[in-house]
Amino acid sequence: MPTYSFFFFYFFLILMVKSDPDPLQDYCVAQTQGSQTFFVNGAPCINPADTSPSHFTTSALSKPGNTASNPLGFNVTLTNIRNLPGMNTLGLTMARVDIAGNGLVPPHTHPRASEVTILVKGSLLVGFVDTSNRLFTQQLREGDAFVFPKGLIHFLYNIESKASALAISGLTSQNPGAQLASAATFTTKPSIPDDILQKAFQINGQDVSRIRKNLGG
């Protein structure tokens, strides 16, 4: 491959792996009224002349989430273009993470975003696994922050048995996505064939059925 072709290909790859495209204007407040008749990366903009400070403000993260809504004892509240329309095209998301005593945000990934988490209240054990299966963990105290690299499996665990924990996260995409490792494996529709799961996890058919049932699959 000629040298100039190599560098062209290299810079093309760099452009392709950016999280979200850069905005082409100062802001693009999302048009969220009415049904969407066409689909784009993000949402259509309202007329800039109709923009107001309220479009860039939200109280969505001010109220505690219901950690009793699932057996793992956690709740994640996200900003989005409906509760914060001014975030449209800016390539970011904020999240409030409430975790009950001994609650767990289970191993999961964000395929389109890196994440930085700041512990506001409580004590958390957090960690991620890199692609060589090396585990990085850290116990966080109030005011500590931790970064989860894009696409890597990570978790947050409240090590206190009675006290709840509160964290705030920032993610580098308007639509970071979230995929729980356990649910993505055992609760798909249609189901991954049992033979594949048995071989992959070195378990038997009864184990597969039990895990599916426990996860609601």
UniProtKB/TrEMBL annotation:
<dbReference type="Pfam" id="PF00190">
    <property type="entry name" value="Cupin_1"/>
</dbReference>
<feature type="binding site">
    <location>
        <position position="110"/>
    </location>
    <ligand>
        <name>Mn(2+)</name>
    </ligand>
</feature>
<feature type="binding site">
    <location>
        <position position="115"/>
    </location>
    <ligand>
        <name>oxalate</name>
    </ligand>
</feature>
<feature type="binding site">
    <location>
        <position position="154"/>
    </location>
    <ligand>
        <name>Mn(2+)</name>
    </ligand>
</feature>
<keyword id="KW-0964">Secreted</keyword>
<comment type="subunit">
    <text>Monomer. In the absence of manganese, it forms tetrameric and pentameric forms which show superoxide dismutase activity.</text>
</comment>
<keyword id="KW-0732">Signal</keyword>
<dbReference type="InterPro" id="IPR019780">
    <property type="entry name" value="Germin_Mn-BS"/>
</dbReference>
<dbReference type="InterPro" id="IPR011051">
    <property type="entry name" value="RmlC_Cupin_sf"/>
</dbReference>
<dbReference type="GO" id="GO:0009506">
    <property type="term" value="C:plasmodesma"/>
</dbReference>
<keyword id="KW-0479">Metal-binding</keyword>
<dbReference type="GO" id="GO:2000280">
    <property type="term" value="P:regulation of root development"/>
</dbReference>
<feature type="binding site">
    <location>
        <position position="108"/>
    </location>
    <ligand>
        <name>Mn(2+)</name>
    </ligand>
</feature>
<dbReference type="GO" id="GO:0048046">
    <property type="term" value="C:apoplast"/>
</dbReference>
<dbReference type="InterPro" id="IPR001929">
    <property type="entry name" value="Germin"/>
</dbReference>
<dbReference type="InterPro" id="IPR014710">
    <property type="entry name" value="RmlC-like_jellyroll"/>
</dbReference>
<keyword id="KW-1015">Disulfide bond</keyword>
<feature type="binding site">
    <location>
        <position position="110"/>
    </location>
    <ligand>
        <name>oxalate</name>
    </ligand>
</feature>
<dbReference type="InterPro" id="IPR006045">
    <property type="entry name" value="Cupin_1"/>
</dbReference>
<protein>
    <recommendedName>
        <fullName>Germin-like protein</fullName>
    </recommendedName>
</protein>
<feature type="signal peptide">
    <location>
        <begin position="1"/>
        <end position="19"/>
    </location>
</feature>
<comment type="similarity">
    <text>Belongs to the germin family.</text>
</comment>
<feature type="disulfide bond">
    <location>
        <begin position="28"/>
        <end position="45"/>
    </location>
</feature>
<dbReference type="GO" id="GO:0030145">
    <property type="term" value="F:manganese ion binding"/>
</dbReference>
<keyword id="KW-0052">Apoplast</keyword>
<feature type="domain" description="Cupin type-1">
    <location>
        <begin position="59"/>
        <end position="209"/>
    </location>
</feature>
<comment type="function">
    <text>May interact with bacterial adhesins thereby protecting the reproductive tissues from microbial attack. Has no oxalate oxidase activity.</text>
</comment>
<dbReference type="GO" id="GO:0010497">
    <property type="term" value="P:plasmodesmata-mediated intercellular transport"/>
</dbReference>
<dbReference type="GO" id="GO:0004784">
    <property type="term" value="F:superoxide dismutase activity"/>
</dbReference>
<feature type="binding site">
    <location>
        <position position="115"/>
    </location>
    <ligand>
        <name>Mn(2+)</name>
    </ligand>
</feature>
<keyword id="KW-0464">Manganese</keyword>
